[in-house]
Amino acid sequence: MLKVRDVHVYYGAIHALKGVSFSIEKGELVTLLGANGAGKTTTLKTLSGLLRLHSGRIELEGASLNGAEPHVIVQRGVGHAPEGRKIFPRFTVMENLHIGGYTRSKHSLGPDIERVFELFPRLKERQKQVAGTLSGGEQQMLAIGRALMSRPKLLLLDEPSMGLAPMMVERIFSTVRTVSQEGVTVLLVEQNAKLALEASHRGYVMESGLITVADNARALLENPQVRQAYLGE
Asked: Strand order in 55-60's β-sheet?
C-alpha cells in the first residue's frame, strides 16, 4: 500500500531524513521506533504533506504523493493523529469531528460520527463539551476519532500514549487494534515500544534519520539491541 523510497527531508540546513526507505502492506499495523530526534515525527509529517520532500518518492497504492497538498493527501486516504493531539481547543467535540471530515460531504458524516462514538463512548458523553476542557486521554481519543472521520486507508498515529495513565493507554491501544482488525492500515510511532510491538505485525527502527533495523514484531521484541535500547532490558 505505502512505499517510501530514499526520502530526504531538511529543516533548513539540518538533514533530518537521510534516505529513508520502507513499505507497509495493506491491512498491516507497523510500528516505527527510535529515540527522540531520530526522525519519526518528521517521517509522519512528510507522509501527510506537512513537510516537503527534498528528494525521494512516496507512493500510496501505486500513485505518487510527492508534492501533494495536505488536504489532497487526506482525500487520497491518509489520516494523521499528530504528536501533541493538536485538537481545536475552543471547538466542541462534535465540531472537531466535523472538521475531521471536512473533505467529505457534511450529510455523509453521520455513520462515521456514530462509529467514533462506538469506539470512544466517552466522546459521545462529551460531544457538546469544549475540547480544551477534556482530559488528556479524552483529547487523544478525539485526535484519533477526528483522523478517522476522513475514512482513511492509512492511519498515522504519533505517540498516542504520551502522558496518559496506564489504564487510558490500554484503552487507546485496544481501539488501535480494533481499527487495524477492521482493515485500516496503521503506521504507529510510539514511546511504549513493548506495547506497540505486541500490537503490531512488523516494525522499523530509526536512528539519526535512517532506518537501521526492520523485522517482524516478535523478532524485534526478542532483538537484544532493541530490548536494551527501547525496552529497558
From this structure: 14-24, 2-11, 55-60, 63-64
- pLDDT tens profile 48-91: 999 999 999 999 999 999 999 999 999 999 999 998 889 999 99
Task: State if pTM tops 0.90.
Answer: yes
Dihedral sign, CA of 190, 195, 200, 203? positive
Q: What are the start-end ranges of the E strands in 61-116?
A: 63-64, 78-81
Q: May I ask the CATH class of domain 2-87+152-230?
A: alpha beta
**CA separation for the pair 224, 233 (Å, rounded):** 8
The helix (H) or strand (E) run that includes residue 197 is helix 193-199
Residue 183's region, left for phi above 0, alpha for psi from -120 to 50, else beta, is left
155-183: pLDDT as tens digits: 999 999 888 888 889 989 999 999 999 99
Looking at residue 134, its amino acid is L
C-alpha cell at 184: 485500516
Q: How far is CA 34 from CA 146, 159, 203, 208, in A?
A: 26, 12, 11, 9
